[in-house]
Amino acid sequence: MCSPFTCTDGRPPRTPVWHLMAVLLLGLCATGSAWSAPLERLLMPGKLTRAHADLEDDCSECHTSFSQTAQQKLCRDCHDKVDRDMLDKRGFHGLSPAVAGTECTQCHSEHKGRDADIVGLVPTLFDHAHTDFALEGAHGKLPCKDCHADGKPMRDAPGACFDCHRKDDVHEGQMGKTCQDCHGTQTWRKSEFDHDTTDFPLTGAHGEVACASCHADRRYENTPTDCAACHGLQDRHGGLFGQRCDDCHVTKAWTKARFDHAKTDFPLKGRHRDADCHACHTERTRDRELPTACVDCHRGSDFHQGRFGGQCADCHSEQGWATSGFDHDRDTTFPLRGAHRGRSCTSCHSGELPRPRGKGTKLVARACVDCHRVDDVHRGAQGDRCDACHRQEAWPDSLRFDHDLTRFPLVGMHATASCAECHMDEAYRATPQACRSCHESDDAHDGALGPDCAACHNPGGWTRWVFDHDRQTDFPLEGSHAQLHCKACHREPVERMSAIELGSGCYACHANDDPHRGGFGQNCERCHQASAFSDIRISSQVRGASSKEAR
């Protein structure tokens, strides 16, 4: 058998040396020996954080030998503010259910080195609702640094509105520091102050008005409540109807009036209902009764200038001054058709007409020329029957004249031309019919083929020509001749096509092209072909003549 130090059989003891050292150290610590502090540091699992570094030489500041529960009390004795929060159930440590019944060391572990994070705060996971200042409304969107200054404890952040919003106080302290009496956390600008608790409840549009609109210079006491005090400058009546604005106007909208004109001698109907008050009520009518006859108000609007009398209601109604109830088709013997229907009355009715609707009045002329003589571009050359060509739908555009019944039917491209392109004179009678009279400037031949354009061209298109040179002349176009432009041969102007005289021999055109200079005569076709001047066909007679010359 062995004891901690010896064995009966003389063998060394089995008790580990570290066990013996531990017993020795515990004994020293228990006796409070001067050797205990160095030994404690020797057994320390790691350095303290920088915040607790000054306690590293005295373990008893945080630890009590052989007592775990005593350590919790030492922490709270040192951190007295946290201890007070836990006792008073305030702050994070006093409100968080995760802290209650939890040892300090479970969250704040030590001996992990100088730079260790003993606080262990993760801002993104921290629940601010377990503090004295729950983040509500717009506060929940703010970054931590807006309230918690760097280098200062989190608990020192201000909690009163005025502490943070002093610079935002547009009232400049006149309303006190209890901002929450009017403002909420959703938005600073929106006030939750109930104005209905004052002597002036905000009804209608007043509820949407900014405070400063009524409370100038942020004065909230002795603010006037009568309409004219605020709306005097907006009184477009200029005091014409006094200062009892609420007799006609309501708070729902300043422009909405509740005055019932139907209770007067002149109920407002039709467009009168939309008329402005000042259209009838002016300074001149302040102290007298207003007339009710149409002409009394609308005399200046009578573009008939009294021609139809003063009974405006015979034709016009209250639904619209420009809308007339007069039916010209029904009430006259001249039904309005086409463009006549949209004309104004004074276009035809001129002069004084003492009674409306033409009863016993001077009748206007009915013939077209009576009204449209000034519009007659033909100046009477086409007679007075304007309706022979023109229609009532539109005077200048709606024509029904058939040009095919004249001496010059319009065919081909002529049918698309406007009248003015050929008829330079509105009389139309002196218009020439020859092609050259209109197309002289278009003559690409410069008169070399005479003035009879129709001999080659047709109305279907200026570039469409039907002249057959092979059949209609003595010179068929063969080979390269068929590709030539007319001007290649026809160069001199002639009075008529029958007067064209051109030689049919090659030399007439190709004298300048003869490299032989007349050595082989002028009968070029003996050797050259029409397909190309350079294509040569030498006959046997020419070869014999050439052989004799060689000998």
Explain what the structure shows.
It is built from 16 helices and eight strands. Helices cover 19% and strands 5% of the residues. The strands form four sheets. It has a two-stranded antiparallel ribbon with strand order 1-2. A two-stranded antiparallel ribbon has the order 3-4. A two-stranded antiparallel sheet has the order 5-6. Mean pLDDT is 79; it is low at 1-15, 22-35, 352-362 and 545-551. With 551 residues, the protein is mainly α. It has helices at residues 17-31, 36-43, 69-78, 80-88, 91-95, 161-165, 211-214, 227-231, 294-298, 328-331, 368-372, 419-422, 435-439, 469-472, 506-510, 540-550, and strands at 249-250, 253-257, 316-317, 320-324, 457-458, 461-465, 528-529, 532-536. A hairpin with a 2-residue loop joins β3 (316-317) and β4.
